[in-house]
Specification:
heterodimer, A: about 500 residues, mainly alpha, two-stranded antiparallel sheet, 24 helices, globular, B: about 325 residues, alpha/beta, D-Maltodextrin-Binding Protein, domain 2, 2 domains, 6-stranded mixed β-sheet, 5-stranded mixed β-sheet
């Protein structure tokens, strides 16, 4: 079936009233799940799975996919308003999103997150529709050495996330890498740094660390300040609550690169949306003219990661639908759902079930429009949250953090960890250590170590495998370039200063 | 006194014979939503409800972490709770062998029944030069350590099959751990490794699409879905067919009568048409065993695993 005919057929299916309803139910549930920290799409989909057995499979997959990409829209809400990341893919959104909220620009931040999500989400579906089969082959060309190079490139972004002191940033990153090492080593089944606690055997959940350091650390640091309890500024009027034309212009590059990078990272089964959002943020900062203002509330610092984590969804469906290979928890349960309904997800799935595939693609175009329409009016509403006085807001943040962590794992031990990381976050703020490098090290550390050790097992211990494969060599070279960016900018500053002196 | 005791025993057993769950059954699994145990538990809950085998509903609870350690400890905390059961896998037996952190093992819980055996296939990429298991073994002998297999952790069944084959033939090849099932398949299809041990339901579509070839089956008899593929024994490699096992346990201190009740419910389940269809769809084998046989199975399985893992060079802690 060619693309035009397929799409026409798909829209005919997706526009049936019942399927439209399921699409709406899915994206609405997704938005809610995304907003609530701790409750993620995998748990929601698992809970709904028995119900879907009674539904028409096309309607069911449309609804479940709606939950999946809808959650990416909602994830930014608590990141921006409360510094509590709603989903792991929205951690990096905290950096500039929350800074914008503190400057009274929560509305535009929420608005741009929805707009970036819409643009990138749509680009992701376009990619899924147009280039899925060839890209699936590319995904297979990626193996451990390439993943190691990708993670190195990601880790090199630390030089862009560093604040005033590079040494402090590197130290924070090392702590993140260490935390990533806690748990059972997959290659030897030996436990590392578990100190006899079985709860640590499977490692520390990244969301616990992120919520502790970002949200609790922030609350503790602000409480200590003991200033006059002041309400964060929230401008009146709808126009001030939505992004301006200038904001949209500032985000043009972020929209484009976030969409493309997010989709490409999504196609790789071993990467994921958190990595996509970090890389997109790093790239945005690397190419920005106002690099030094990132972290203080720059709108493209919200648009890039929020876009990337949405187009990642379209990318992640590529290996699932074209190969039957799931790359994440959510796609794994979508795979289980397809099997439950009697389908055989695999290389022949699209060819044998064109109706399902095109119906899903068409529903994703519709669902993204629904999400934009659903989320933009919510912006002024959510922005009012910041009108709450701090003596209400801070307990609220602490409460949401605790509920979020407990809902995710149901483990009291995770709450102790949350308290510990909250304290760490507070100390890091006091001593002026940046928290983003720690999170970056934690996100990438595990996958990077695995990829390196797998590569060395493949090559029988020869490091040359990392540079003798073209994709891996190119990415490692890029990582080197990124590492040199601070040198370039320092050189540039010298040059400018020298020119000024010459002129004067 | 003796008489009184006997009387008491009769009283207890007759009251317990009338055991029936009184509230929603909490079903503890050690994987997150979408994991193997989670899917099995939800499917079983669905079938039991459909066939009306229980007077109450079943609610799956995910206690993830530590490869079963957290779920087992949670069950142990619920000692005596009559409305809780758990789904175990072989990991609950092998995990404690290498990690001292396991405070509770399967032996501390009340065995109920074994449910399924998951057979496996040995697969290579379709364009690989190996047409039979012997081809692969010979190639591995000629290039010791050069061929690679993708699999899970070193305590997983994937590696156990490798260890057994290596010991039986004297061939040697590398084993590369990937935490996710999708990554293992991607590594094979991308040509980065040469062989993998794969579940039949996972392999089916790749074989049909012509991307993968199966050399042998890790099962005692040929699976209905793969009538033309020899078992390892038929292919000339007489090693035990190590299945992945799944079954049901209860918290400690559960009376024998309750166990009998659950054995009965699960046995009835395995006789239903929906169960047979579930097994066929997933290419599982019916592995029903009652609590008594299951205890014997623990011993055999653990003894064999201990030997295999020691030979694989892992550090055993118990």
């Amino acid at each position: 079936m060619d693309i035009a005919a397929g799409l026409l057929h798909g829209f005919a299916l997706a526009l049936q009233p019942l399927n439209l309803l399921w699409c709406f139910v899915g994206v609405l549930l997704g938005t809610i799940v995304g907003i609530m920290p701790g409750l993620g799409p995998p748990a929601t989909i698992a809970m709904l799975l028995p119900l879907t057995a009674l539904m028409n499979p096309a309607g069911a997959i449309i609804m479940l996919a709606g939950i999946y990409y809808g959650a990416k829209y909602g994830g930014s809400t608590t990141s921006i308003l409360l510094n509590v990341p709603g989903e792991s893919a929205s951690v990096v959104t905290c950096l500039d999103g929350y800074a914008m909220a503190r400057k009274g620009r929560a509305g535009p931040a929420l608005g741009i997150a929805a707009i970036a999500s819409f643009i990138a989400g749509t680009v992701g579906v376009l990619g899924l529709m147009l280039v899925a089969p060839p890209l699936a082959k590319l995904a297979l060309a990626f193996s451990s050495p390439e993943y190691f190079a990708l993670m190195s490139l990601g880790l090199a972004m630390v030089v862009l996330l560093a604040g005033k002191s590079m040494v402090k940033a590197l130290l924070a990153m090392l702590v993140g890498l260490w935390i990533a090492g806690i748990g059972t080593d997959v290659f030897t089944s030996q436990s590392r740094f578990t100190f006899g606690h079985m709860e640590l055997l499977s490692g520390i959940d990244f969301v616990v660390v992120a919520i502790g350091i970002f949200a609790l650390g922030e609350v503790l640091a602000n409480m200590e300040a003991r200033e006059e309890p002041q309400v964060l500024p929230v401008p009146k009027g709808l126009r001030n609550l939505l992004p301006t034309m200038q904001d949209l212009r500032d985000c043009r590059f972020a929209f484009a690169q976030g969409s493309v990078l997010g989709f490409l990272v999504g196609v790789l089964p071993g990467a994921g949306s958190t990595i996509a959002s970090f890389i997109s943020y790093g790239v945005e900062k690397a190419f920005s003219k106002r690099r030094d203002q990132f972290g203080t509330g720059v709108i493209e610092g919200v648009a890039a990661p929020e876009g990337a984590n949405n187009s990642e969804t379209g990318g992640a469906l590529v290996p699932l639908l074209t190969l039957g290979i799931p790359g994440s928890g959510t796609t794994a349960i979508l795979l289980a759902a397809l099997v439950l309904w009697g389908f055989k997800p695999g290389p022949l799935f699209i060819a044998e079930n064109p109706g399902m595939f095109w119906g899903l693609v068409a529903s994703m175009y519709i669902g993204n429009v629904m999400l934009l329409v659903l989320n933009l009016p919510l912006v002024p509403l959510f922005a009012q949250v910041l009108r709450t006085p701090v003596y209400v807001l801070y307990p609220l943040i602490v409460g949401i953090s605790i509920v979020g962590v407990y809902a995710g794992s149901g483990s009291l031990f995770d709450l102790y960890l949350l308290a510990g990381f909250g304290l760490l976050g507070y100390l890091m703020r006091k001593l002026d250590y940046p928290s983003a490098p720690l999170i970056l090290g934690l996100v990438l550390g595990g996958a990077m170590e695995r990829a390196l050790r797998q590569s060395l097992m493949m090559s029988e211990g020869h490091l040359s495998i990392l540079v003798s494969r073209p994709i891996s060599a190119v990415m490692l070279a890029l990582a080197l370039v990124v590492l040199c960016i601070p040198l370039f900018s320092r050189f540039n500053t010298w040059r400018l200063r020298a020119m000024e002196q010459e002129e004067s | 006194m003796k008489l009184a005791l006997a009387f008491l025993a009769v009283l207890v057993s007759s009251s317990a014979l009338a055991f029936k769950p009184t509230r929603t059954i909490e079903v503890v699994v050690h994987t997150g939503p979408g994991g193997g145990s989670d899917i099995l538990a939800r499917a079983v809950a669905g079938m039991i409800e459909k066939e009306k085998l229980l007077p109450v509903r079943m609610q799956v609870v995910n206690k993830t972490g530590g490869g079963g350690a957290v779920a087992a400890a949670y069950l142990a905390e619920k000692a005596g709770d009559e409305n809780t059961i758990g789904f175990f896998t072989g990991v609950w037996l092998t995990g404690p062998l290498t990690s001292p952190e396991y405070k509770v093992t399967l032996r501390d819980l009340t065995p109920v029944a074994r449910l399924v055996l998951e057979p496996a296939l040995i697969a290579v990429k379709a364009d690989a030069p190996f047409k039979t298991m012997a081809d692969f073994i010979n190639a591995a002998k000629q290039n010791p350590g050069q061929l690679k297999q993708s699999g899970g952790s070193p305590t997983s069944r994937d590696n156990v099959v490798r260890q057994l084959l290596q010991k039986h033939t004297g061939a040697r090849w590398a084993y590369i751990s990937f935490p996710g099932g999708g990554e293992r398949i991607a590594a094979l299809l991308g040509g980065h490794v040469n062989m993998m041990v794969i579940e039949p339901a996972e392999a089916g579509e790749h074989i049909r699409a012509g991307n993968m070839r199966v050399l042998a089956q890790v099962s005692d008899s040929r699976l209905p879905g793969f009538p033309g593929v020899p078992t390892l024994k038929e292919a000339g490699f007489d090693i035990p067919a190590v299945p992945q096992v799944r079954g049901v346990v209860a918290p400690p201190k559960i009376p024998a009568e309750n166990v009998a009740y659950w054995e009965d419910v699960l046995l009835k389940l395995t006789k239903t048409a929906s169960w047979k269809k579930f097994l066929a769809d997933n290419q599982f084998e019916d592995g029903y065993q009652n609590a008594q046989d299951l205890t014997k199975f623990y011993d055999e399985f653990t003894a064999r695993m201990r030997e295999i893992l020691k030979e694989a060079g892992l550090k055993l802690v118990r």
